[in-house]
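Project outcomes to date are best conveyed with an example. Our students and postdoctoral researchers have been running inverse folding experiments weekly, and each run begins with a structure described purely in tokens. The record below, which covers 192 residues, was selected by the lab manager from last quarter's runs and is presented without edits.
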């Protein structure tokens, strides 16, 4: 009898698992619901100030850097500072971008790092390929818009080969911006 009472008491005070992060604009039927919910529960992705996730909004380079740096526990020594005129140390994403730059994952161009600009699908493929240890492609997809000489040819094909980007067809759309939902799916497929 004592054992039954103890067990009942444990059930009463045991924490109940509740979905910690739900966003009104990401219904259960959304293609990226599971990915978004998982990443939000892990503290890797957050909603916006209005409490919604905005799955169709583009993800910025700084937002992507935050997710990747936190997921891989990447940091930079205090003596290192990325040289980018458009990334002041006061920028909210500075430490994440700095960590990715230090680890040779994210780089800028003649315009700088562009932390608040959307990340393109080609940039995302390159950044994720440098962040994670994917299997090298045994075969290459023939994306008509990512020819062999394209700077992101190998990373794009690596993600396709590993099932990270599953958008079928003969086009990858490397210049298109990545949405928050798409990025959630790419990261989720990688870490799960």
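After processing, the design step wrote out the following sequence:
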């Amino acid at each position: 009898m004592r054992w039954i009472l103890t067990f009942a008491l444990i059930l009463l005070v045991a924490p109940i698992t509740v979905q910690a992060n739900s966003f009104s604009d990401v219904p259960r039927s959304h293609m990226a619901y599971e990915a978004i919910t998982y990443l939000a529960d892990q503290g890797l992705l957050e909603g916006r100030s209005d409490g919604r996730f905005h799955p169709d909004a583009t993800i910025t380079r700084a937002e992507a850097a935050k997710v990747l740096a936190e997921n891989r526990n990447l940091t930079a020594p205090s003596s290192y500072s990325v040289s980018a005129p458009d990334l002041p140390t006061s920028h909210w994403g500075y430490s994440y971008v700095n960590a990715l730059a230090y680890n040779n994952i994210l780089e800028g161009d003649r315009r700088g790092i562009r932390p608040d600009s959307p990340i393109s699908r080609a940039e995302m493929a390159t950044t994720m390929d440098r962040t994670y240890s994917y299997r090298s492609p045994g075969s290459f997809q023939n994306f008509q818009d990512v020819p062999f000489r394209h700077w992101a040819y190998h990373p794009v094909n690596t993600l396709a080969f590993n099932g990270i980007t599953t958008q079928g067809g003969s086009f990858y759309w490397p210049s298109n911006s990545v949405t928050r939902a798409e990025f959630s799916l790419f990261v989720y497929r990688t870490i799960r």
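The two ends are 43 Å apart (CA to CA). The chain has seven helices and no strands. The training component of this project remains on track.
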